[in-house]
Amino acid sequence: AFEAAGIETMSPTRAAAAILSNMVLRPSLLKLMASETSGQQLAEIRVSSPASAGKTLRDLSLADVVVVALRRGHALELPVGSTRLEKNDVLTLIGNESGLSTARKRLAG
């Protein structure tokens, strides 16, 4: 049922091992993901709006957010202003609530 809904599953043992590994290898990244600091949040947004697909990040002029990663299929890319978005790309953003809300509206419609 989870796979049919597009939800990735992981065993509890594997999840615990991944968390422990990140605690040791990337402690500051884990802290960032686990808490909101200074009103900043981490979000993943799927590009589903026809108006956003085909545009570059620069064209979208997303304010109050930083795009830190782009997942296209199984590939992870480092986005820049000239990165052209495709439908179903997943962007990882850090920003305040207002900026993330605006980004969701533009990217997801």
Care to describe what's here?
The chain has about 110 residues and is α+β, with helices and mostly antiparallel strands. The chain is built from four helices and four strands, in the order ααβαβββα. A four-stranded antiparallel beta sheet has the order 1-4-2-3, with helices on one face. α1 (about 10-25) packs across α2. The model has no long low-confidence stretch (mean pLDDT about 85).
Radius of gyration: 15 Å
Shape: globular
- Which consecutive residue ranges, at least 5 long each, have pLDDT under 50? none
Structural class: alpha+beta
Order of helices and strands: HHEHEEEH
Strand tally is 4
Which strand order do you get reading across the main beta sheet?
1-4-2-3
What is the number of helical segments per DSSP (H or I, 4+ residues)? 4
Helix content: 25-40%
* Mean pLDDT reading: 85
Let me know the largest β-sheet.
4 strands, antiparallel
Distance between the termini: 26 Å
Oligomer: single chain
Q: Please indicate the percent range of residues in DSSP E strands (runs of 2 or more).
A: 15-25%
Name its key features.
109 residues; alpha+beta; 4-stranded antiparallel beta sheet; 4 helices; 35% helix; globular
